[in-house]
Amino acid sequence: MNDAQSLQQAIDEPVQLVEYDSTWPARYAAERDRLLQRFHAELLDVQHIGSTAMPGMPAKPIIDVMAGVASMAMADALFEPMLDYGYVTSIEFNAGLSDRRWFMRHANGRRTHHLHVVVHNGELWRQRLAFRDALSRDPALAARYADLKRELASRHQADREAYTQAKGEFVRFVIAQ
Fold first, then answer.
1. Three-state secondary structure readout of the chain
2. What is the pTM for the complete model shown?
3. Count of domains in the chain?
4. Which superkingdom heads the taxonomic lineage of this protein's source (predicted)?
5. Which CATH number is 110's domain given?
6. Domain residue limits at 13
């Protein structure tokens, strides 16, 4: 499989959850270190977010990384350097995002990492960490989210955007707490 085929297969990859994998934190740490080695002056902090950051949580086996920068102007300045550093993205998709820039790494036709570049300590930064931390502290809340994810992954297997949007109400509820 060539790189273009691998990318297209990764883009079209269905929503499929797997049980928690104890290697996810180490995979995050390796990517964090890789990013900080190259972008040490630009990235103010790098955090593991999403379901792979929550022990015991079923997840799509894609490591979600959130990198904090000083401003969206800095996020935009990192656009081409991130592409040169092994990430891919959609210019059209990012044009619709006002509060972040989104990138993906892939290998062998599968997504391996999502990178969300956001303003450090901005609203989205705080929300994503609040959600992760709330579920990590509350096993009953985490179990409700796991059940919802399984149901939505079954319903929206071929539509990643619908899957993500369908989780939105639960995420907003948790953040509001």
1. CCHHHHHHHHHCCCCCCECCCCCHHHHHHHHHHHHHHHCCCCCCEEEEECHHHCCCCCECCCEEEEEEECCHHHHHHCHHHHHHCCCECCHHHHHCCCCCEEEEEEECCEEEEEEEEEECCCHHHHHHHHHHHHHHHCHHHHHHHHHHHHHHHHHCCCCHHHHHHHCHHHHHHHHHC
2. 0.92
3. 1
4. Bacteria
5. 3.30.460.10
6. 3-176
